[in-house]
Specification:
The complex is a heterotrimer of chains A (785), B (153) and C (266). With 153 residues, chain B is an alpha+beta fold. Chain B has helices at 22-29, 63-66, 85-92, 102-115, 121-127, 139-152, and strands spanning 2-7, 10-15, 48-51, 54-57, 70-72. The model of chain B has no long low-confidence stretch (mean pLDDT 97). Chain C is of the alpha+beta class and 266 residues long. Chain C contains 11 helices and 14 strands. At the A-B interface, helix 1 and helix 17 of A face helix 3, helix 4, helix 5 and helix 6 of B. The structure holds flavin-adenine dinucleotide and FE2/S2 (inorganic) cluster (2 copies).
């Protein structure tokens, strides 16, 4: 392994600009002549807009316009679509309520934008926004997920507020197996609503060039090409070839910046109307209200076991809160990214899941780090844990005896997936060893002497990354393909520019992808530059989500690199006057077999652009594109084990040790991979112990700032202990699986298993806040001491 | 009103309205966009700079309060080819991902190390309470800061 | 933020007269409460009178059995002061628990006491130590000072100049922080004087108060165990997302026990 090749912990090259303050995030851009937009947002969860009086606002100094949802509609701007059409049980399409970028007749959640004020300064826009008088007729909102299907209809014609009633698996067989099971464990689980909170608030600048008709959108996006596609094809802002979307440095996303948002459409439209660049930057309060939220499920689960403890059936019924409208991928998260993962690592023969996708008057809910898979893992790993306790088996043993074995691959689950490879016991064993499982009881006793309740919990998760293949996904309702594109361009002087359709907003692609390409082409790492995030420079792409970038985007680059090598080989053979078959390629050098003649790939590149001695029938140039469409998902899996200590007096939970052993296939850059795990686990810890997006009965967000929404801080998390095992993915050229979400997928169940273990209770609802835990302790003891 | 501030060693005379925040002076007037804004309740620390030698949240300092002061921002502590030890440690330990919290985190960390006699894991975590990072899980940040603290000791 | 006029006086008198001449003024101390409030447009003063230039409001001094803190003393100064560490180490400890480093470099004791946030830390010390709040007009005893939610005995325009804190034999402060904001859900200071034990509680009620039942129990027996059976009624206690009144009452007991243990160990 070279110092910069595959597997090396290369220090990130993007860091140079970030640690010196030279990063260029959207809000850092200053477009000549820019003016500022402020959005007017609904103060009510559900209301009819009866009048908007902007006269006062318009008279303010520097105010350029107040534009409303009606204006937008009159200009022919269309609705924001949902990108995945889910079929219901009865075969009918899901019910998608119209989602105008700016609300016109009705508003359906607090924070929904219905107009924007544009002014020469930010301050002027804010002042003017306060002087717009809007009359609302309040309507009864639907907030509570548990009762939403029996409440008033939010959207006309959407009966029971149900977007869909979806199922997967064999209901009859599953119910029969449950009826015949020796033990059935039943559990009701809540997956708490989370607010993503990337540290960079969303921002967008719209720009219009009247002379050329070109529109440019600078935006905080994880997938600029998708934004362009949706904004042109569906929202109708501009034709695709007249719209350029640039996502410069992006300060975190975690899913929340995948989606196409109202503000992006609005600034472009306003820029065209006003003939000047229009900039908007969210305040954090707006992020809380109007970024798509995550999770929010109510689930009833039943797990059947036979007399030996083998799982015989799993039945899952879930209500998924989708919020007021279907955000870009909202429909697929609680269905295809959730139901399909319910087999977990186990050979459960019968699985059935049904999901109600429910509208409420809350912010739209969509993919958030893990998207569906943390929810599935939580269900499986909580119920398995409870089963172990109820039948008196060691939780590790019960898991182990039900695991899919290395010899079982490829393994077809009862919920539509085929796992290609894995060795689940290996990760489990390594994690048990790292945590010193055998020594736990001594640690528990020691903690007790300090007044602390210590618990241990594990979670053996599996997830699916790099959604694929396109044809299957499209049959299942996906609105876009799931391939990725890449281009490897050797420049005449021998260095390389790489274009990728994925997008890096913290994942370090500029480093990892350069490692991959430099390794493949045998050119120095420093000579490879990675370009992403600009539809004007990169041909096409689907962006970064679902831990897909390396497995799919990286594979496209391997494919393109191989095309470059193939062409270069022909050129080299011609120049060295031998047949292409006589030329070998290794470490950037083409050599003639059994001779000492050779040329570097850089020499070949020069020849390709300055073709003097060159094959007549070959085009000049050395630049190749590839689209890579994976044939399957990749299946990272692993075991996370948490140990917690609870202050018995106050109920405060601390994670005191955390071990993650993950199988991500081959690892290109271990430094980056570990960082992804740390970050994911911290978010999972946040979900388990701290974070909860809460509304009151009127639909006002109670956790609308960092005063009340509890973000993990440095002193909330322990040092993590991270290790990997490796079973290479069998169907992509790098043998990689994806590591971006595993931390957030595996950890919540591990931590909650530890908390419930410490308390000796069956279940506790996330987040395990100190008061909840204190009540559980008190309940167990029958009174305060 | 007219104020004088020294930013990264250069003195500026600026005409500002009293309701201007230090962070806006830095970002909008001086175009020093390395200092970021991540919240509106003075909690995230993305805007941290040094004001007369102390780490402060520049989103919560008014122009008038900065009058006559010396301010150091992320742009003022080192350059790509001449990094401050804390910057170098952040890179070495992979203590950043998206980089958005990073300038504030580095400025807070420098202050923490300078003003503390002894730092261990717990003390660093407590000392960084005013800075939120969503990406890294803090693990590598803490290790980076500890490495600088150890080098100092 | 709305526009306002900015003034920077150099004396108490000048500050007060600037205040009285303005339409809807506010004193600006560290700004750690006032500026966020103004940014959110929840406060819109026409004039800010910045107290940072008033020398008379600065300084930490021990005067016999009193510790005198200028109103403009920043939290970080208190946390790191040798004088405070000698006189009332629990106060230095308390100051070091306020917010975070950046907040402590700016926020001041005068601003905190003037603001009387129900979740602020200093008020626990002010009541537990029986401090006196000295203003430009008079001296207010802590017993009269805190009145209700964000309500104090200060009259419009009245300005805190310094706080005078009697030095106890021993004292200790325990805080149960709000996991999100890090303010106090409950904070308890226990102070032992020659003539008795005083317990100040913040976070639990609309403003800081003395916990007489706890004081009575500790007067008889200054040990954590003495608080075991003491009933802490939660009537009138705060309740929010993070803690119900009942839980707060429980936490007052736990924090008090721990503070007593710390005090005995000091
Ligand atoms: C992120 C964050 C976390 C925090 N955490 C905590 C915490 O854990 N515990 C805690 O106790 N506090 C906390 N605070 C509040 C902080 O301690 C403030 O500094 C304090 O409450 C107000 O002090 P200030 O000097 O900043 O006052 P300012 O914000 O300047 O003023 C506050 C109010 O008092 C008035 N005022 C100021 N000085 C005087 C005076 N001398 N006479 C009369 N009126 C005056 C002002 O007009 C204003 O109404 C936190 C603040 C932030 C931003
Ligand atoms: S922007 Fe200053 S603390 Fe968040
Ligand atoms: S690196 Fe992204 S928020 Fe810290």
């Amino acid at each position: 392994m070279s110092a910069t090749g595959i597997g090396a912990p290369v220090r990130r090259r993007e860091d140079g600009r970030f640690i010196t303050g030279a990063g260029q995030y959207t809000d850092d851009l200053h477009v000549e002549g820019q003016v500022y937009a402020v959005f007017l947002r609904s103060p009510y969860a559900r209301a009819r807009i009866t009048d908007i009086d902007a006269s006062h606002a318009l008279s303010g100094e520097g105010v350029l316009a107040v534009l409303t949802g009606d204006d937008m509609r009159a200009d022919g701007i269309g609705d924001i679509p949902c990108g995945w059409l889910v079929k219901q049980k009865d075969g009918s399409d899901m019910v998608s309520a119209p989602h105008p970028p700016l609300a016109h007749t009705f508003v359906n959640y607090v924070g929904e934008p219905y107009a924007l004020v544009v002014a020469k300064t930010q301050d002027a826009a804010r002042h003017a926004a306060e002087r717009v008088h809007t009359d609302f007729e309040e309507l009864q909102p639907v907030i509570d997920l548990a009762t939403a299907t029996d409440s008033v209809e939010i959207h006309e014609g959407v009966r029971h507020n149900l977007a869909y009633d979806w199922e997967l698996g064999d209901r009859t067989a599953t119910e029969q197996a449950l009826a015949d099971a020796a033990h059935v464990v039943r559990l009701d689980l809540v997956n708490n609503r989370l607010i993503p909170n990337a540290m960079e608030p969303r921002a967008a600048i719209g720009r219009y060039d009247a002379a050329t008709g070109e529109h440019t959108l600078y935006t905080t996006s994880q997938n600029p090409h998708l934004a362009r596609l949706i904004l042109s094809a569906f929202v109708g802002i501009a034709p695709e070839h007249k719209l350029r979307v640039v996502a410069p440095d992006v300060g975190g996303g975690f899913g929340s910046k995948i989606f196409v948002y109202a503000e992006e459409a609005a600034v472009l439209w306003a820029a065209r109307r006003l003939r000047c660049p229009v900039k908007w930057t969210a305040e954090r309060a707006e992020s809380f209200l109007a970024d798509a939220h995550g999770r929010d499920h109510l689930t009833h689960v039943e797990l059947g076991l036979n007399e030996h403890g083998r799982f015989v059936a799993l039945k899952v019924q879930t209500s998924a809160n989708l919020g007021a409208y279907l955000s870009t991928f909202a429909s697929s998260v609680p269905t295809y990214l959730y139901g399909t993962l319910l087999a977990g690592q186990y050979k459960t023969p019968n699985i059935y899941v049904e999901v109600h996708g429910v509208y409420t008057n809350t912010a739209p809910v969509d993919a958030y780090r893990g998207a569906g898979r943390p929810e599935a893992t939580y269900v499986v790993e909580r119920v398995v844990e409870v089963a172990a306790r109820e039948i008196g088996k060691d939780p590790a043993d019960l898991r182990r005896m039900n695991m899919i074995q290395p010899g079982d691959f490829p393994y077809e689950t009862p919920v539509a997936l085929t796992y290609d490879t894995g060795d689940y016991e290996k990760s489990l064993d390594r994690a048990l060893e790292l945590i010193d499982y055998a020594g736990f009881s001594a640690r528990r006793i020691e903690a007790r002497q300090r007044g602390c309740l210590r618990g241990i919990g594990m979670s053996c998760y599996i997830e699916a990354c790099g959604l694929a293949p396109s044809q299957l996904a499209i049959q299942l309702g996906a609105g876009v393909g799931l391939y990725e594109s890449g281009e490897v361009r050797m420049n005449p002087t021998g260095n390389v520019t790489v274009f990728t359709g994925t997008h890096s907003h913290g994942q370090g692609h500029e480093t990892t992808f350069a490692q991959v390409v430099s390794d493949r082409l045998g050119v120095p790492f420093e000579d490879v530059e990675v370009v992403h995030g600009d539809t004007g420079r990169v041909e096409f792409g689907l962006g970064t989500y679902g831990s897909r970038s390396l497995a799919v985007g990286g594979s496209a680059l391997v494919k393109a690199s191989d095309k470059v090598i193939a062409k270069a080989r022909i050129i080299a053979a011609h120049m060295m006057d031998v047949g292409a078959d006589d030329v070998t390629f290794d470490g950037g050098v083409f050599s003639v077999r059994d001779s000492n003649r050779s040329m570097t790939i850089q020499e070949v590149a020069f020849a390709a652009y300055v073709p003097s001695n060159y094959p007549l029938d070959l085009e000049p140039g050395l630049s190749e594109k590839a689209f890579y469409d994976p044939e399957n998902f990749t299946y990272p899996a692993g075991t996370h084990i948490a140990e917690v200590e609870i202050d018995a007096d106050t109920g405060v939970v601390r994670v005191v040790d955390f071990v993650a052993v993950d199988d991500f296939g081959h690892v290109i850059n271990p430094l980056i991979v570990e960082g992804q795990v740390h970050g994911g686990v911290a978010q999972g810890l946040g979900q388990a112990l701290l974070e909860h997006g809460r509304y009151d009965d009127y639909g006002q967000l109670l956790t609308g700032s960092y005063m009340d929404y509890c973000m993990p801080r440095a002193d909330d998390v322990p040092q993590f202990r991270v290790d990997t095992t490796t079973t290479p993915c069998t169907h992509n050229p790098l043998g990689v699986k994806g590591c971006g979400e595993a931390g957030a997928i595996g950890s919540p169940a591990a931590i909650m298993n530890a908390v419930t273990d410490a308390l000796g209770v069956r279940d506790l609802t996330m987040p395990a806040t100190s008061e909840k835990v204190w009540r559980a302790i008190r309940g167990a003891k029958g009174g305060i001491r | 009103m007219e104020i004088t501030v020294t930013v990264n060693g250069r003195s500026h005379r600026l005409d500002v309205s009293p309701n201007t925040l230090l962070v806006d002076i830095l970002r909008e007037q001086l175009r020093l966009t390395g200092t970021h804004v991540g919240c509106d309740t003075s909690q995230c620390g993305a805007c941290t700079v040094h004001l007369n030698g102390d780490a402060v949240k520049s989103c919560t300092v008014l122009a008038g309060q900065a009058d006559g002061a010396s301010v150091v921002t992320i742009e003022g502590i080192g350059a790509v080819d001449d990094l401050h030890p804390m910057q170098a440690a952040f890179r070495e330990h992979h203590a950043l991902q998206c980089g958005f919290c990073t300038p504030g985190m580095i400025m807070a960390a420098i202050d923490l190390v300078e003003k503390s006699d002894h730092l261990d894991d717990a003390a660093v975590r407590e000392g960084l309470e005013g800075n939120i990072c969503r990406c890294t899980g803090y693990h590598n940040i803490v290790n980076a800061v500890l490495s600088v603290a150890e080098a100092k000791a | 933020m709305y526009p306002f006029n900015y003034h920077k006086p150099s004396s108490v008198d000048e500050a007060v007269s600037l205040f009285l001449d303005a339409e809807d003024p506010a004193y600006l101390s560290g700004g750690m409460t006032l500026i966020p409030t103004m940014k959110q447009r929840l406060a819109m003063p026409t004039d800010l009178v910045d107290l940072s230039g008033v020398q008379a409001m600065r300084g930490i001094e021990r005067q016999d059995q009193k510790l005198v803190l200028g109103a403009f003393t920043r939290h970080a100064e208190v946390a790191r002061s040798e004088v405070v560490a000698q006189a009332i180490p629990a106060l230095a400890h308390l100051a070091g628990l306020i917010g975070d480093n950046q907040v402590r470099y700016r926020g001041t004791i005068g601003g905190s006491v003037a603001n009387s946030d129900p979740a602020a830390d200093y008020p626990a010390a002010v009541v537990a130590l029986g401090a006196e709040v000295v203003t430009n007009k008079r001296t207010i005893s802590s017993a009269d000072y805190f009145q209700d939610l964000f309500e104090t005995a200060l009259e419009p325009g009245e300005m805190i100049v310094r706080i005078e804190l009697p030095i106890p034999r021993r004292a200790a402060y325990r805080k149960f922080p709000n996991p999100a904001s890090r303010y106090a859900v409950v904070g308890v200071m226990v102070a032992q004087f020659d003539n008795g034990v005083q317990v100040g509680v913040t976070g639990a009620g609309p403003c800081a108060f003395r916990a007489s039942t706890l004081e009575a129990a500790l007067a008889a027996d200054l040990r954590p165990e003495a608080l075991a059976g003491v009933d802490i009624p939660d009537a009138g206690f705060n309740a929010d997302l993070h803690a119900s009144a009942e839980y707060r009452a429980h936490l007052v007991g736990v924090m008090a026990r721990r503070a007593v243990a710390d005090l005995l160990a000091s």
